[in-house]
């Protein structure tokens, strides 16, 4: 049963939900699913995978990623190289 759920820290809802754009929310949830949901610290996620997961176009995915990185909620842990996509990690905001 545990594999049917993804842990999302309450702080994302309690302190950040109202300020995030729709694209930022969708991208954050996609990263959360691919990391917390798979018990990983970070994961390689291509822009096309983000597009499929979120229903957003590439420009909106990139804008969502940039916004989350600027807000300090997501970090890019590895740059894209050749056919390997970039790797992303959710940041647990300090209390």
**Could you state the order of secondary-structure elements as H and E?**
HHEHHEE
State the CATH superfamily name.
Answer: Winged helix-like DNA-binding domain superfamily/Winged helix DNA-binding domain
Kindly report the CATH topology.
Answer: Arc Repressor Mutant, subunit A
Q: Largest beta sheet, briefly? A: 3 strands, antiparallel
Number of strands: 3
Spatially, the strands of the biggest sheet line up as 1-3-2
Count of all domains: 1
CATH class category name: Mainly Alpha
Question: Which percent range fits the helix content?
Answer: 40-55%
Structural class: alpha+beta
Unreliable parts:
none
Q: How many helical elements?
A: 4
Q: Specify the CATH architecture.
A: Orthogonal Bundle
| Radius of gyration, CA atoms, in whole angstroms | 13 Å
Shape: globular
Gap from first CA to last CA: 30 Å
- Mean pLDDT across the residues is 92
Percent strand equals 5-15%
Give a verbal description of the structure:
The chain has 95 residues and is an alpha+beta fold. The chain has a single domain, classed as Winged helix-like DNA-binding domain superfamily/Winged helix DNA-binding domain (Arc Repressor Mutant, subunit A, Orthogonal Bundle). It contains 4 helices and 3 strands; from the N terminus they run ααβααββ. It has helices at 10-16, 22-35, 47-54, 58-71, and strands at 43-44, 74-78, 87-90. It has a 3-stranded antiparallel sheet. α2 (22-35) packs across α4 (58-71). The longest helix is centred in the first third of the chain and has 14 residues, at 22-35. It is globular. It starts with 9 loop residues before the first helix and ends in a 5-residue tail after the last strand. The mean pLDDT is 92.
């Amino acid at each position: 049963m545990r594999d049917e759920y993804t842990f999302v820290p309450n702080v994302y809802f309690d302190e950040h939900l109202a300020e995030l754009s729709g694209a930022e929310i969708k991208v954050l949830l996609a990263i959360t699913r691919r990391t917390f949901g798979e018990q990983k610290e970070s994961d390689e996620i291509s822009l096309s995978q983000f597009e499929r997961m979120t229903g957003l176009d590439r420009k909106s995915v990139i804008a969502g990623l940039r916004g989350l990185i600027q807000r300090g909620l997501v970090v890019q842990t590895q740059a894209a190289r050749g056919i390997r996509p970039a790797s992303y990690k959710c940041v647990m905001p300090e209390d």
